[in-house]
Design a protein that fits this description.
Length: 113
Amino acid sequence: MALHVYPAQRKGELASLFVDPSHENQGIGRKLVHFVEDKARELGLNELITLSTQAFNYFQSKAGFVEGTLDDLPPNRREKYDHSGRNSKVLVKKLNATGPTKRESAPSFTSTS
Ligand SMILES: CC(C)(COP(=O)(O)OP(=O)(O)OC[C@H]1O[C@@H](n2cnc3c(N)ncnc32)[C@H](O)[C@@H]1OP(=O)(O)O)[C@@H](O)C(=O)NCCC(=O)NCCS
């Protein structure tokens, strides 16, 4: 599994997710996806993309991705896609800031005069 970073677009690409069939359905795929998401957040990225044929349904139903379009790909990645001859689908997941970097909303005050 790999995380390719496109800093100019603040996007990361989750690539080559694979779990050996003898270890399927034990939550390993989920853990790997979470690991990449956390890493991407740490790097300050806003969005993860992935290209998939076989695991399209997995990314949608189990990993919180939604179907995207080729326009979601960073320009240099798009070029590579166009030359690859593969017909993978694009999936996208927005990353929200979490934990200590997320600021509380300002408290509201009520006048008691
Ligand atoms: C898709 C894959 C990564 C899932 O990994 P995993 O460790 O088995 O998945 P998890 O244990 O996290 O999740 C299991 C759940 O996902 C479901 N699932 C597994 N593969 C699926 C698929 N291709 N489509 C839809 N759902 C799938 C299982 O039925 C199970 O559902 P349940 O929780 O309702 O019982 C793994 O099967 C795999 O490597 N497949 C072949 C390679 C591949 O397609 N890689 C992606 C290329 S980018």
